[in-house]
Amino acid sequence: MSESTHHRPPTDADAESEALSEREYHYLLAPRRRRMTLDLLAGRREAVDLEPLASAIAARECGLEGRDEETVETIAISLHHVHLPAMANAGAVDYDPQAKRVTPQPCLLEYDLQFDREVAVGVNDRRR
Fold first, then answer.
1. Residues 5 and 88 sit within 8 Å (Cβ to Cβ)
2. How confident is the model at residue 42 (pLDDT cuts 50, 70, 90)?
3. Which residue spans within 6-121 are E strands per DSSP?
4. Three-state DSSP class for 112?
5. What b/e readout covers 35-61, taking b as 16+ CB neighbours within 10 angstroms?
6. How far is 16 from 124, CA to CA, in rounded Å?
7. Which of 30, 33, 101, 105 has its CA 20 to 30 A from that of 111?
8. What does the DSSP 8-state code read for residue 30?
9. Left, alpha or beta for 48 (phi > 0: left; psi -120 to 50: alpha)?
10. Which of 15-19, 29-33, 36-40, 61-65 bottoms out in mean pLDDT, i.e. has the lowest?
């Protein structure tokens, strides 16, 4: 079984409350790409491969026409090295960097993201 990235050790505060502090909450949701990732993963239970997730984010950021291979790869790299590890540290996802798979966690956040509900190619299609 592969190991997932989840670096933040549990603290006494975690035992008392599952909610993130206001500072952690703002840090987690500050980048738009993280908000889009959480929005795309909302309501899912099964793991998602990194490439379809990056492709869906590219479609939202650039439109379907701007979703070329290079753009998807750039987004996948930023998710892999920056955003998904930070989200895993906050407990919002489990991320297996070797398998490049993201598993949504029962989110410790209560958020209401206001995104246009565009087609999430390769990610939300499987929810049906």
1. yes
2. confident
3. 48-49, 93-96, 101-104
4. coil
5. bbbbbbbeeeeebbebebbbbbbbbbe
6. 34
7. 101
8. S
9. beta
10. 15-19
